[in-house]
Amino acid sequence: MTDPAVSPNRDAEPLLEVEGLRIELTVRGRGPVPITRDVSLRVYQKEIVGLIGESGSGKSVIAKSLIGMLPRRIRVSAGTSRFQGRDLFALNAHAMRAVRGAEISLIPQDALHALNPVKLVGKQVGEPIEVHTDTPAVEVHKQVVQLLNRVHISDPEARTQDYPHQFSGGMQQRALTAMALSMKPPLILADEPTTALDVTIQGEILKLIRELRSDTGASFLFISHDLGLVSSLCDRIYVMYAGEIVESGTRDEIFSNPRHPYTRGLIGSVPRLRNNAARLLTIPGRIPGPGDEIEGCRFRPRCPMAEGRCIVSPSLEASKGGHAAKCWLF
Amino acid sequence: MLMTDFNWRRYGLVAGTAPVVVIILVTAGLAPLIVPYSPYDLDVMVMLQGPTASHLMGTDELGRDVLSRVIHAARLSITVGLVAVLIGSFCGTIVGIIAAHFGGLVDAILMRFMDIVFCFPAILLAVILMANLGTSILNAMLAIGIIFIPGFARLTRAVAQTVQRQSFLEAAICLGMPGYRIVFREILPNVIGPVLVEAAVAFSYAVLLESALSFLGLGAQPPEPSWGNMINTGRGFIDQAPWISLAPGAALFFTVFSFNLLGDGLRDVLDPKLND
Amino acid sequence: MLLVAKNLCKIYRRGGIFARRSSITAIKDISFSLAPGVSLGVVGESGSGKSTLLRTILKLTPYDSGSLIFDGLEVAAIDARAMRNFRQRVQPVFQDPYSTFNPRFSIGSSIGLGLAGDGVLSTHQRRDAVARLLDDVGLDPDLHSALPHELSGGQRQRAAIARALAVKPELLLLDEPTSALDVSVQSQVLNLFKDLQQAYGFSIILVTHDLPVVTFMCENILVMKAGVIVESGKTADVVDRPQTEYARLLVAAVPEPPA
């Protein structure tokens, strides 16, 4: 199934085009269990695309699958991911290593554990440059200082001689961002990059990402469970549920006019800063596990608007423009 | 069908070693009933004979059946091992839980004391203890038990401290649970697992220690057979009748190895990461 | 007033016998009051001291100076005999659903923990009480025999609420009770808190970093930073017209979906 999303610049080729992605987990004694089912999405140049989902949605494996870093028992069993003319899933280990960090980089979730505690920050931030190019050490150092400056770490020259534990949580995340930028990749994957951070620091990281998008022209795929974050940062959004994309559209389309009942339920269940109702909207029931086989629409057992035809799985169709929902009602 | 459904990674080792361990324990327990000869019967007509049909492991310098003595010695070694581990684990657990529960000065004093005992090489400590207590088998059990206390104390202290950081412990305190109930319901059940694993390995070390002690002439005294003193006596006859040392040596190796593997197996059973 | 704090202070001293002493002031000069049936939100970032405040009220750590009066009793002065009674009137719900239950016992057993041991209820009565509590928190009463790992995070938090309610507390202390849960589960649990408060009439102190949760649940708010209260008042007032720079910062930092 292809992604019906429409590019902000209608004629442009997408930077990343994922189609029919199916990722499976091998469970002993049970055979392969699908974590994502037939996921298609696109990222165009210079845009920030958000991927929202709760646990069990499958969003957390997507970033890793694109750069060939899935853990041992999880693998891509179907689908393509076209990036700059090549299928990422078809690359061998050698070719993938050339892509990783240079053309697609990842800002991981847990900053503290993503940094090597016994290596200087300066050395780590410059590692992608050292690995992918022949740049001499002196020049690498210069670039590292520039990068730290770019991510607004004050006194960058001195900071290169620090160890990760000497950085605050926010600074660690900025350092990781600098590392992700170091080879000027056209696509940056951000996997819940602000989860462990305080709200005020979170805001600063978001501002940084917006800035980087306009300055460097890089595109971001921002993966998160936090609706507020995604809504304030992302141009286009994909909503995932139980391994599938259930809705996609621009930020305004999704939040002002959500179509899929799950998206509506999700948006309604988040408390607002002002004007909350006496009770929050809830979605009854529980999120299905990856192995749960549900006949037809995977949201049907919990959907307040389920009908007879929902026994057949709807497809993700765009009605007009690019706003698509995987639901018979639209 | 049953075989492939079985979680071999988790239970494989235990499944393999448990039967062996059971056999060893049963053999040792039933020793007087199954030995072909009495371990004390002399028969100078057949001394220093190699393995034959009537003496499967040969005879020693006094014509006694080596097999019977090896089996009888098993009983001794295993009893010493069990009692020593019981003493060590019981006292060690109490010390560890008290240290974790009270913390501060109490913890510091107790653990420094444990460290001092821990510093001594086991054999040396055992020899010193037995020199003071006397050379009986009972004292061997006590000495070896004392040697194990610091190891168990450290382990249970660490586990208890981990448990203390869990929310359920604070929830229990907030419900007004008295201290002793918290120890018995919240801490002990979570401590037992690691202690069991350590006990299996400690047991094999205890058996080894007992053999070393009786090799040195402490512990079981002749004519009482012990693997240690059999190996020791056998040294003098190593050229003419190597089986006198080899048989108990092999039995010792086999027992220690099996219990060690059992300990590894128990660790796998408890490992939360080996889930299906 | 159910709870009155005046100039509460707690200092953590680092170092033992052999290490150098250094002190961190965890909370300083904390004063507030809480009426029965009312909810108070405590908002702050890491290092604000909000968790320390909670633990002090729960009497999990003692306070060093100031006074904390619960229903007329000075908390520091409660003796061993009155302790159990006090403890049962003030109950926590913690953040992490995965360590909130002893993994070796069924949740029914853990929920009934507060009811056991004083000989007042028979086993049968206790079982009935647990079943009723499970029902109150929206769980199937058959789950009383389930082990913690058999339940989802949301179910475990509900069970934790049941455990707290079993002893009929007058004050519930919530430490980021929904932060570890999925968004759609959070709303279920937050609604549950509101419903239960209506039904049972207890007061709530809700500690969180998530300002919108406080707006939803609490009439009053304390904003904490570096161990002190920087602003306090009615939640609506503080959010709409923050008086201090920090409060303004916190409000501005909340990312909001449009419309």
The level 1 CATH classification of chain B is Mainly Alpha
CATH topology name of chain B: MetI-like fold
- The general outline of chain A is globular
Residues in helices of chain B, as a percent range: over 70%
Measured distance between first and last alpha carbons of chain B: 16 Å
**Helix fraction bin of chain A:** 25-40%
Structural class of chain B: mainly alpha
**What's the β-strand tally of chain B?**
0
Strand/helix succession of chain B: HHHHHHHHHHH
- Low-pLDDT ranges of chain A: none
Alpha-carbon Rg of chain B, integer = 22 Å
Q: Give the strand order, joined by hyphens, for the main sheet of chain A.
A: 6-7-8-3-9-10-12-11
The CATH superfamily title of chain A: P-loop containing nucleotide triphosphate hydrolases
Mean pLDDT of chain A: 88
Helix/strand structural class of chain A: alpha/beta
Strand content of chain B: under 5%
Question: What is the CATH first-level class name of chain A?
Answer: Alpha Beta
Arithmetic mean of pLDDT of chain B: 87
Topology (elements, then pairings):
The complex is a heterotrimer of chains A (about 325), B (about 280) and C (about 260).
Chain A: E1 16-27, E2 31-43, E3 48-52, H1 59-66, E4 74-83, E5 86-87, H2 93-99, E6 104-107, H3 111-114, H4 121-125, H5 127-132, H6 137-150, H7 156-159, H8 169-181, E7 187-191, H9 199-216, E8 219-224, H10 227-233, E9 236-241, E10 244-250, H11 251-256, H12 261-269, E11 317-318, E12 324-325
Helix pairs in contact in A: 6-8
Chain B: H1 2-5, H2 8-29, H3 31-34, H4 66-102, H5 104-119, H6 122-133, H7 137-164, H8 167-174, H9 179-215, H10 227-235, H11 243-270
Chain C: E1 3-14, E2 22-34, E3 39-44, H1 50-57, E4 65-70, E5 73-74, H2 80-89, E6 90-93, H3 107-111, H4 123-136, H5 153-166, E7 171-175, H6 183-200, E8 203-208, H7 211-217, E9 220-225, E10 228-234, H8 235-240, H9 245-252
Parallel strand pairs in C: 3-8, 3-9, 6-7, 7-8
Antiparallel strand pairs in C: 1-2, 1-4, 4-5, 9-10
Helix pairs in contact in C: 4-5
